[in-house]
User: What shape does this take?
Amino acid sequence: MGTAQAEQVARRTALTPRQWGKDFQRRDGNYEYDLSEISMGRPDEDCRWQQAPGPSPDLVGWVRNVEAPGSGPSGSITGEADSMVLVHKRQSTARLQLPDMRAALDQCQTWYYGDVLRYDDIHMDNAGIDGVDEILAWSATSSQTAQGQKAPREAWPVSEIMARKGPVVLHARITADPDAYSAQALRIRAARAMETMVAHLTSEE
Assistant: This one.
């Protein structure tokens, strides 16, 4: 697959707000961007996520971020979600991603993203998604700290799914206020999001 075709596949497969649900809209100021220049990361021995030294030359990627606005003060939200599509030039490198993530899940029950975000109670989930070569799902709770750009908040449940089909790796993540969405509801939405992405991808074949 050439670079131009890989870019088209990535953009067409990443989800729009409506594909997450009618309550979602584009994330203000940070809706979508190219991932080709972004380096992948993994947690260090202290479970703090670190970026790789540089972007992979083997990768074309795209991400879309959405949010569910709240009914409170202007700018408040009740949920966030993102879909990521990584198209590898070589299937051999795509095959490394899910095992690397599984190793990160086995390593830590808490992840730290700098000083602004923390994942607690990380645990594996079951996810039956047809039409993929590999699948990996997990849940956790996410908390923002006082150093973040937003005000500190109580822990929100989060659900994530990664899947691989050939040289393409898909990632869906959703987190929300537990007063608005239950953890089970988030797992269902994440699974539906992944099913939609897989359907987009297979329609391109």
In short: The chain has four helices and eleven strands. The chain has a mean pLDDT of 87.
